[in-house]
Amino acid sequence: MNNQKGKLEYDGVSSKVEWHTLTTPRGGQYNLKLPDGTEVWLNAASSITFPNSFATGERKVKISGEAYFEVAQKKDQPFKVDIDGKAAVEVLGTHFNINAYTDEPYIATTLTEGAIKMIDRQQTAVLSPGQQARISTKGMNVLKDADTDLVLAWKNGLFRFENSPINDVLRQFARWYDVEVVIEQNDPDILFTGEVNRNLTLLQAMIVLEKMGVHFTLEERRLTIKP
What was the pLDDT predicted at 7? Predict the structure, then answer.
C-alpha cells in the first residue's frame, strides 16, 4: 500500500481476502486506487470499505458520505457499490459520483461516463451520462439533465452553488471546516450562486457570503447565523 499526499494506492497481494475501511475526516479528502485499478475520490466525512483483492465474480465495495468513481473496465467482473445499505449501483466500467450524506434530503448518484444500473428496493433504473438518480424515502426519481460541473465541484477543490439556499451551503461548510452550525434565523429568500475555493479559511469563505446578506459570528468551532 503506497501513500502519497492524499493519494493511496493499494497494490498488496494476498491469498486471504481481508476487508479494509478508509475514512476521511471533516476537512479531509482522499484519492484511492483499488486493487483492480479503479480510482475513488472520497469527500470529507466519508468512508469506503473494500477488499485487499477482488475474487472472481463481482467486485464489491461499500461507501458512506460522498465519493466519485472511475471504475476499471472488466467485462467479466461487474463492479457493485453498496450505498450504506440503502441502495446499490452496478457497473462494468464507468465514471460516476455518489452523494449519500445522512444529513442530505436524498441519495444522489450522477453519471458522467458509461452506464450504471441503480437499485433501490424494488425499483431499478439504467442511467445515461448526464443523468442523476435521486433516492429518498418516497422512492427513486431520475433527473435527465443534471449539472455535472456542480456535482463534481468538490473533487476539483471548489464549493459551487446554483440558486442554493443557505442550509445547503452551510451543510457543506460544516463538513469541510469541521464546525457546528447554528442558524438563529433562516431567510429562504437568500439564494446563492457562484464558486468558493475550498482552500479559503472558513472566515474568508463566510466573508464571501456576508457580501450577499448573511450575518454571522464565529467563536472557536461554532458558526452562528444571525438575523
Answer: 65
What 3-state DSSP class applies to 167? helix
Residue-wise pLDDT for 5-45, tens only, equals 566 665 555 567 889 999 999 999 999 999 999 999 999 99
Nearest Cα neighbor of 148 from 96, 93, 80 is: 96
How remote is the C-alpha of 21 from its chain's centroid? 16
The Cα 34–Cα 197 span in angstroms is 28
Backbone angles phi, psi at 9, to 5 degrees: -120, 120
Q: What is the DSSP string of 95-114?
A: EEEEEE-TTSSSEEEEEEES
User: Given the C-alpha cell 461548510, which residue does it identify?
Assistant: 173
Separation of alpha carbons 45 and 178, rounded Å: 9
- Closest C-alpha to 93, from 76, 118, 110: 76
The pLDDT tens digits for 171-190 are: 999 999 999 999 887 777 78
